[in-house]
C-alpha cells in the first residue's frame, strides 16, 4: 500500500515537461517561421516532441489523401494535431471529428470560418492562434503613410471564405478613414496568373490595394507584389508573408511569435486547462513595416 502511495506521489510531482509528445503537423504550404517557433518553444518548455509533418503543398486532394491514408491508420498514437492556415485547419477539423485535440495556427478569423464557436462548450477539442491584427489599427497606420486617395481595392479569391469575411469587416473600417472599398474577384488558377495580374493593375489605378491573408495570394506573393510595385500601386499588406516583397505598409503579427503562442497552448492543456477555456491567442505586439523598414 505504501509503495502504491509513493508511486502516485511521484506521478503528481513529475513535471509536465517530462512528457514526450507526438504531434501531427498538418501544413498547407510547407514549414514557416511559425512552425519553427512552435518546435523551439515546445523544447524550451521542456517537452520532447516527436513531430510528423503532413504537407499539402497547396492541394486539397493531396491533403485529404494524406489524412485518410497516412494519418488515419496511426491517429491513436498522436497526442495533438497542429494545423497551419484556414484551409488545412478546416480539413483537419472535419477529418478528426473531435477524436484528437486540434491546435490551429495562422488563421485570420477562426470564428467566421467556423473553426471555433462563440459557444465555448463546443470547443472542447480545438484551440489556437489567429494572425489577425485589429483592422482599425492596420488602416489607421496605413492612412498615415499612404497617398490621400479615396479608393481601396480588395482582391477576392472566391474559393477562400476568409477573404470574403475580411471584405465584410474592411468595408466599414475603410469608410471610417475615408476610403471607399471596391472588390475584384481573382481567379485562383496559376495558369491564368499573368492575365489576372494585368486585370488587377488596370483595376487598381488610383487605388490603394489591401492584400488579405489569402492562401492563394500568398502562394503567388512574389509575382503579385512585383506587378503592383511595377505599376506603382500602393499596398497594405495584412500578414507577414507579403512583407519580403516590398509592401508600401503593413501592420503584421510575427509568425514565429504565433508559433510560440501555439506551443504555450500545449502547456496550458498539459497542465489541466480545458481547450474550451483557452481563448484564441493573438500576437499582441504587431510590427509596423513601412517600405522595408520597421517603424519603432
Secondary structure elements and pairings:
Layout: H1 2-13, E1 20-27, H2 33-44, E2 48-55, H3 60-71, E3 80-84, H4 86-96, E4 102-105, E5 126-130, H5 135-145, E6 151-156, H6 161-176, E7 180-185, H7 193-203, E8 207-211, H8 215-219, H9 221-230, E9 235-237, E10 249-252, H10 255-270, E11 281-282, E12 287-290, E13 293-295
Parallel strand pairs: 1-2, 1-3, 3-4, 4-5, 5-11, 6-7, 6-8, 8-9, 9-10
Antiparallel strand pairs: 10-12, 12-13
Helix pairs in contact: 2-10, 3-4, 7-9
- Which percent range fits the helix content? 25-40%
- Overall, the morphology is globular
CATH-assigned fold name of the largest domain:
Rossmann fold
CATH architecture of the largest domain: 3-Layer(aba) Sandwich
